[in-house]
Amino acid sequence: MTTPPVARKIPHRMEQLGRVRVDEYAWMKDDNWQEVLRDPSLLREDIATHLRAENAYTADILSGTQDLQATLVAEMKGRMQEVESYPPQPHGPWSYGVRYDRGAQYPVYTRHRTDAPQHEQVLLDMNACAATHDYFAVATAIHSPDHRLFAYAEDTQGSEIYRVRIKDIASGQMLGAPIDNCSGAFTFSPDARHLFWIWRDDHGRPARVYRRAVGSDTDTLVYEEQDAGFFVGVEATRSGQWIIITAGNHDTSETWLIPAATPDAAPTCVEPRRTGVMYGLHHWGTDFVVLTNADGAVDFMLMLAPQDAPARANWRALVAHEPGHYITECMTFANWLVWRERHDANCRIVMQTRTGDRHALEPREAAYDLSLCGGYEYDTVALRYIYQSPTTPRQWFTYDMAQRTHTLIKQQDVPSGHAPADYRCWRLMARAPDGQDVPITVLGRHDAPCDGSAPLLLYGYGSYGHAIEPDFSTRVLSLVDRGWFYAIAHVRGGSEKGWNWFLGGRGANKPNSFTDFIACAEHLVARGFGTAGRIVADGRSAGGMVMGAIANMRPDLFAGIVAVVPFVDELNTMSDASLPLTPPEWPEWGNPLEDAAAYDLIESYAAYEQVRPRAYPAILAMGGLTDPRVTYWEPAKWVARLRENTLSSRPVMLRTNMEAGHRGATGRFDSLRDAALIHAFAIWAIETA
């Protein structure tokens, strides 16, 4: 077996709030990291050499799985439509869609006259754009309200620092110079004469809103956020009557308005920010619908505010707060209000007329995902939504809200074949140490034995109030069809059981996310869905924090742990105010620069800080060199410290994508290689345990 890389140790002593810590691998953070995000070739050579050595070691350890990886890629590709398209969205005389051509890695954005679908116009061919880049992604791609223009935000490094281009559709010519340093978020003004876009500062934070007259190269500052912990956003209302600027962090928000009739007017604040109060506006006739947690509405409620005086003093009740029924989003139509709410890890879509008549879409499977598709039309009764479950491929429906009739407009096809009856989905509840019931979604073959003999992959996230939906995934079928169970632990920190479920895994309550995950693993073992020591745990990004914690807390439960772009150096990251996400995330984890209790809490669970001599399972950590969210040095440092301390013979591996960021490879087929690597590692970890 190849000898693993040995990272040199250069002790770096830090004193903070009277506490001292030593980081022997701090040298892996390039002082030039901000420039590296824009140009990866600038990475310091000693760091690059070490990362390449780690990649070579990982490839060597898993070299015996190369044929398996190729088989897995072929299987996953065989479940994908080579030629694929998604239901176009109508907008007046045009319908706008997205399709993939045979063999194409990237989508093509198109449109056609609604009454002449055979005459297609190509708005953006991402394959042509990506041809000269190792990495290519588009964050936003939209047409102007008058259908003359098309704009898109492109990223060619993976750093999420976007360049916006505006195209005249008729001539195909680009208008004006590209807009650089964009966060990827922008919107046309409803009159299509201006583009409002978000500027990223030198720390990578969305901090300003600019307005550019289409065709010019001059930008006018519209709004600048002074709080480094607040990110800004911009959008036009569905009604086309307002431009909305938002500023907020994870628990406080503020909204500013610009009338569409005067897009060059200065924005006006709706209601000044107040710590702990979130609100968002949706224009509806002569009012705004306000989605807010004000007045203790933990799971949010809907209020009405007159558009001429939308301040908090004028809000009046529309949809009352119902504890445990978390309103995740809402949409307004000319005569309808639609919202989505989540209860006990499943969701429903509710519709209400202006007169208060209300009905809901609420499927009855044990676990499923029901999502709104948005759309461009405001004065319509047609609602577009998607239904799916772990056993049921995606189905696109148009729902007539007035007639209450469904029309299936597309169903995901699995070319290699898929029979939902061959699979079974379970919804279980694990008892956490404090008595809370933690939902678990399990997928397996219908005839899979629940006697502990099957290997188990357990996925978890648990941060930011982001719920992991029980959706349909063709990729996990490669494990399930090999006799595995695939499970999702809906741990606290997400919002599967409402906003309190998020608050129960946040800040001082963060350790609940870790103990919930362990409780889920133990419950699955007790129910025969796995055996201790034959489980592979999987977490991505903030879910990697869970992976780092459970590796330290209960390494005996797992044969392997996958941690993709993992947030595992929590104390050092939250103590570095120059990093893009640090100030905005102090409400999430605490501020260890100013709060001793927060320092001690983060240190108590931080994966990197809590590495000790113990028998760790096999670990595969994966990072991205240009990742602005979880920087490449976090997994690199963690792996070095784990390898130094582990008492087992199980390998600790690092694979860094030297050409991508947080999201990994962007091509639809290229991304299969990462998924195949993870599955192959999981199979290898079980077979070699």
Structure description:
Helices cover 19% and strands 35% of the residues. It has 13 helices and 37 strands. The longest helix is centred in the C-terminal third of the chain and has 18 residues, at 670-687. The radius of gyration is 25 Å and the shape is globular. A hairpin with a 5-residue loop joins strand 11 (194-200) and strand 12. It has an eight-stranded mixed beta sheet, with helices on both faces. A seven-stranded antiparallel beta sheet has the order 7-8-9-10-11-12-13, with no helix packed on it. Helix 3 packs across helix 13 (670-687) and helix 7 crosses helix 8. With 689 residues, it is an alpha+beta fold. The model has no long low-confidence stretch (mean pLDDT 96).
Shape verdict: globular
Strand order in the sheet with the most strands: 30-31-33-32-34-35-36-37
Rg measurement, Å:
25 Å
| Overall pLDDT metric | 96
Percent range of helical residues = 10-25%
Contiguous low-pLDDT stretches (5 residues minimum) are none
Largest sheet: 8 strands, mixed
Structural classification: alpha+beta
Q: What is the helix tally?
A: 13
Distance between the termini: 16 Å
Tell me how many strands there are.
37
| Proportion of beta-strand residues | 35-45%
Family: Belongs to the peptidase S9A family.
Protein name: Prolyl oligopeptidase
Domain Peptidase S9A N-terminal: 5-412
Pfam families: Peptidase_S9, Peptidase_S9_N
Give the key terms.
689 residues, alpha+beta, 7-stranded antiparallel β-sheet, 19% helix, Peptidase_S9A, AB_hydrolase_fold, protease, Prolyl oligopeptidase, hydrolase
